[in-house]
Amino acid sequence: MAIGQAAAGTPGGGSALGRALAPLLQPRTLTATIYLLVSMFVGLTWHVVLATGLLLGVGTLIIWIGVFVLALTLLAWRGGAWLERRWVRAMLGVHIPDPYRPLPAGSLWRRARVLAADPATWKDLAYLIVLFPLGLIWFVVTTTLWTLALGLLTAPLWFWIPADGGMALFNDGVRANLVVDTLPEAILAAVAGAALCVAAAWVVKGMAAAHGAVALALLGPSQNQLQARVEALQASRDRAVDSAEAERRRIERDLHDGAQQRLVALAMDLGMARAKLETDPAAATALVGEAHEEAKRALAELRDLARGIHPAVLADRGLDAAISALAARSPVPVGVDVSTGRLPDPVESAAYFVVAEALTNAAKHARAAEIGVRIARHLDLLIVEVIDDGAGGADPAKGSGLRGLADRVAGVDGHLTVTSPPGGPTVIRAELPCGS
Amino acid sequence: MRVVIAEDSVLLREGLTRLLADGGVEVVAQVGDGPGLVAAVDAYRPDLAVVDVRMPPTHTDEGLRAALEVRERAPGTAILVLSQYVEERYAGDLLAGGAQGVGYLLKDRVADVGEFLAAVRRVGDGGAAIDPEVVAQLLGRRRKADPLATLSPRELDVLSLMAEGRSNAAIADRLVVTDGAVEKHISSIFTKLGLPAAPSDHRRVLAVLTFLRA
Lengths: 436, 214
Hints:
The complex is a heterodimer of chains A (436) and B (214).
Chain A: H1 2-8, H2 14-25, H3 27-59, H4 65-92, H5 108-117, H6 119-153, H7 155-158, E1 167-171, E2 176-180, H8 183-219, H9 223-276, H10 281-309, H11 312-317, H12 319-329, E3 334-339, H13 345-364, E4 371-378, E5 381-388, H14 400-411, E6 415-419, E7 426-433
Parallel strand pairs in A: 3-4
Antiparallel strand pairs in A: 1-2, 4-5, 5-7, 6-7
Helix pairs in contact in A: 1-8, 2-8, 3-4, 3-6, 3-8, 4-6, 4-8, 6-8, 9-10, 9-14, 12-13, 13-14
Chain B: E1 2-6, H1 10-22, E2 26-31, H2 34-44, E3 48-52, H3 62-73, E4 78-83, H4 88-95, E5 102-106, H5 113-124, E6 128-130, H6 132-140, H7 153-164, H8 168-175, H9 179-193, H10 201-213
Parallel strand pairs in B: 1-2, 1-3, 3-4, 4-5, 5-6
């Protein structure tokens, strides 16, 4: 009743009432309610899984199986946290970025060590442990509020059903002192129920916000990580600006030294031909022929230059077509396996230039006999891999091509790894985030 | 032969018109975009439409799309698509409806006036003209157990020219051999690649391209 009065006593005015009712009408309240009800069971499940996994793992550590069990448990909870992030985003509308450090390429053992050293892994564990007690609170409060509110609201429909006459709202076992058994009482109960619904929506909103905050704190990146990320972004932006500048200089040079020189020669040939047209027609014809050839070479050069800046086929037909065309032009046989549809332009562009540069390197420096290109989407990452059987020994620190590539990949927030032991094989791998 | 030109660059449009007129081809209409081409073909029913791939408003491949629409509305119209760049995929779109009266050439080829006029006539007469660069892309594609490896260098030359849409006589002329020698090479190629013997020139182009793209 007190709650009902509080709600009824809200000062009048459409906007204030509208604001008070807003949470009740938002679809988010429904999804949040579902989330709050389910989280206890999710938490309970993780308690069972984690207790079993960790105890079993520690117990069998002495016979080595434990290592395997523990690693499996760790992977399971990382996966659980990953799922939980998406689930929280879908139901509570709280966006939590994955805070993980990039995993290195290499042996399973090396990956496991990085995984275990990542603080995010342990915060994931803490979250899954906290999920059950939190979920328990959410479950109790949510069920109590909503059943009471909906029960009261619908009182006029069923107050006459109970055999002993009326519905006991409060019963201390000795005497029922608050019983709804007449229509006016039922209507009063319905009004209170309606008010309670509004209140329940507000409480749900509050609990959802509280849970969102806990999830963000435990599942999200830490302050240090955010700081490091800002610095990394700053650095990659600087390099992207630098590399764009270098690219513009290269284009300018190519235009001046290539096509423009050819056009100068062409104009010269034509000028001389015109001068000789009357006096020496044979020489003039030869000069015109030369000018013709020069013009065709200039055209070819301009076409190559344009393709190097941005291949039209990439924009029109996507990665598969563009990479196939690249492969067909390569002097070394290239096997292509592209299994992805259209992606955002910057991602397609970065992937294309990774492959283009890697193919050039493999053919020019590594003296490879065979190259493989594989592009596949893995969750929200695009994985680009170029493998060649050449001499190896490629070093991003030395070659400006590979260095520029790393900058280009960093420009779209991706990650480039080059594995190239002397003697080969060379594996160039780019991981490019492509949205979810 | 009556021709419609669709090209948004006025300079090139005028140049093409002059070049074709000099070569004895009648240019009945010039337009600057895709819808214009479709309307002009409806109005003039030309034998051939010469189409630039990139035209307003998006400057991507509306020429190609307009060409495909023309082929659908007026199937008898031959199409010669010109482009600043050629890629095998676009050729695939264009040839999906057959290789009869289809051409796909790099714009640069206009510079070789004689060759270009020959290609225009070939396409207008229901033949094919595929840019050597596209053919090179197709031939450059590597595959496991490459059947092309069984061809002799001479046979590869003949295969390239055949894929470009050239007739036996033109191939013989280009390679400076007799018609009979070309025929012998071609039947050997078809046997080695397991291709069905094709009667006419354009069917042969289609067979070869289908094989190369597979």
